[in-house]
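User: My collaborator sent over this chain with a note saying "see what the structure looks like." That's all I know about it. Can you take a look?
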Amino acid sequence: MLYFSESYPSLPGMLEINERFENRYDSEEYEKKISKLSRNAYRHDCEGSPEIVHRWREAIEVLKKEDHYILVMLEVPLEVPRSASDGWKLLVTAVVVAVGFAALGLSIMAGWDWVRHHVHTNVLDNVQVLAFVLFLALVCFLALNDKAGKRVGDWLGRLIERLFHW
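Assistant: Without extra context I'll predict from the sequence alone. Here is the result:
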């Protein structure tokens, strides 16, 4: 039954096998048993090696490309357990990002202050508002756009990794 799929060909005679299964067994009880087995296997494998967790994730992603009955029963959390070093990396990354935003904000304020004292115009207030709106738009775009946000996050991750490696 784990091979069963309504929309993709699997084993020969699978529809008849499914019909006999439905008549002889309690589907709900079967699904609970397989779910429990998959959870226990996942937990056991997670204790063994973080690499195996990635294999679980990859296998489930492959299964999701088709419509397999086993996906109903795989109640496996897809998050990868974090090591202690990952916690430190996450903390340092958060501090670096916070310091970076603070430095960016201070730089912008210092630049605006310089322009205020050296450029005498009434347009400055409009430029400040426009710059603020553009900055907010950029932040919203990166936060709401998965691909762009992921690319920026990956770039920041690589940058921080290089800094630590250096």
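A starting point for your reply to your collaborator: The chain has two domains: 14-73, 84-165.
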